[in-house]
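During the no-cost extension, the postdoctoral fellow (Dr. R.K.) reprocessed legacy sequence entries with the updated structure-token encoder. One reprocessed record is reproduced below for audit purposes.
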Amino acid sequence: MNKLEEIMTYNKSFVQNESYKKYKTTKYPYKKMVIFSCMDTRLTELLPRALNLKNGDAKIIKNAGAVIMHPFGSIMRSILVAIYELSAEEVFVIGHHGCGMSSIDPTSTIEKMKKRGISEDTLSTLEYAGINLENWLYGFDCVTDSIKESVAKIKNHPLMPKNVFVHGLIMDPETGELEVIVNGYEKEIT
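Re-encoded structure tokens follow.
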């Protein structure tokens, strides 16, 4: 049985047994919060449990490294929609120790692309179009600095309301312990 068949078989049973009932909620986050975090598999269940979140408590947005690549990309759009349309009032940027984006080697990743069938022509076309794949694939050197940068991009976004608190935290992916890097309730010292 392939992965799709496995999922579909399970899903049929899930629906028939009405297992979905315990997950019913609304589209509005009960705790009025947005969490932007890394897609690391270790955080799938650990993150919500360590934050005492249940289904429906928060909007959770994930990408590789919890990094905002572009101020008008899909991550910022999702955060802004959660605030303006879904009543979120706070944003939590949560990175983690041992993140793969802190050690990614873009050159190696490009080589892996080639081995999987991406042609030199495709790579050349992207380069000609002004896309620097090495910069695009690069992660970060320091998770603390990366979290601070993502918090600053959110907080200083021209469409972000000034009364939304933006926090930055780092999680231990083994224990779930959190460390506050940016406390959004504190006024900035200039």
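Residues 7 and 105 are 33 Å apart (CA to CA). Helices lie at 3-16, 43-50, 74-84, 106-115, 120-128, 133-137, 143-155. The remaining legacy entries will be reprocessed before the final report is submitted.
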